[in-house]
């Protein structure tokens, strides 16, 4: 019995090959389905459009990078781990550079809705890269880290696309510099958020003490008024 066709991956592979051969803007879903050897109905079942195929491609790259992580990598400093992970990502993307140039030239050929989904996908990828390097990505600080990492990756990606060196040395050097600068800002943000958190904690404690004191005073007033009200009620009873 022949193996079941992996349609999503077949569509991704076909789409990237077509993008490398001609303008991404001119690639249609029918082209992709035919190149993948599947019906248009099968294509419809597995993707919403070209933008969806690109998001699946990014997820595939994410998984390839994460699958290659070694347990020993987690013993390295976070800065070094992050450089290794991002460079591993560029290595995984290397075979697709012609296609990526075509896609970027057409700006992904995305409409507004797909553009928003693409941004969300890239933020998700950077979250995983940071998490894999041991950085916390939760809360406001984590969100700022993800946004900064997305910007750094975009600058390095632009250089990497035309980096003709065998080891992508210029790209790695830029990444190292950008991450070093970001680390300084990250420390300042962490310090600032820590101060803000402590200040909010103090304000909250003062508020709760004030509320408790006011509540206690109200109870004492109510207790003091109750006997007088009871006495007045007895005197007027028939």
Automatic annotation (TrEMBL):
GO MF, any single term: DNA binding
Record PROSITE patterns: HTH_TETR_2 (PS50977)
Residue ranges occupied by any HTH tetR-type domain in the UniProt entry: 5-65
Pfam family, one: TetR_N
UniProt xrefs under InterPro entries: Homeodomain-like_sf, HTH_TetR
DNA-binding recorded as keyword: yes
Database matches in Gene3D superfamilies: Tetracycline Repressor, domain 2 (1.10.357.10)
Biased composition (Low complexity): 217-231
Residue range(s) of DNA binding per entry: 28-47
Start and end residues of each stretch annotated as Disordered: 211-238
Name of the protein described by the UniProt record: TetR family transcriptional regulator
UniProt source species: Thalassospira lohafexi
């Amino acid at each position: 019995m022949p193996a079941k066709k992996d349609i999503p991956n077949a569509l991704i592979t076909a789409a990237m090959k077509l993008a490398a051969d001609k303008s991404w803007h001119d690639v249609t879903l029918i082209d992709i389905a035919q190149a993948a050897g599947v019906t248009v109905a099968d294509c419809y079942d597995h993707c919403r459009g070209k933008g969806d195929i690109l998001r699946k491609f990014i997820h595939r790259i994410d998984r390839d990078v994460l699958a290659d992580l070694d347990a020993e990598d987690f013993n390295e400093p976070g800065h070094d781990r992050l450089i290794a992970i991002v460079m591993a990502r560029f290595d995984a993307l290397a075979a697709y550079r012609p296609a990526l140039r075509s896609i970027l030239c057409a700006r992904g050929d995305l409409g507004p809705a797909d553009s928003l989904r693409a941004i969300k996908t890239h933020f998700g990828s950077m979250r995983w890269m940071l998490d894999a390097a041991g950085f916390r990505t939760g809360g406001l600080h984590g969100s700022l880290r993800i946004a900064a990492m997305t910007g750094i990756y975009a600058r390095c990606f632009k250089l990497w696309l035309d980096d003709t060196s065998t080891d992508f040395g210029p790209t790695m050097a830029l990444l190292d510099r950008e991450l070093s600068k970001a680390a300084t800002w990250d420390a300042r943000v962490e310090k600032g958020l820590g101060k803000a958190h402590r200040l909010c904690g103090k304000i909250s404690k003062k508020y709760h003490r004030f509320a408790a004191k006011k509540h206690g005073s109200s109870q004492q007033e109510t207790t003091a008024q109750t006997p007088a009200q009871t006495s007045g009620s007895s005197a007027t009873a028939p």
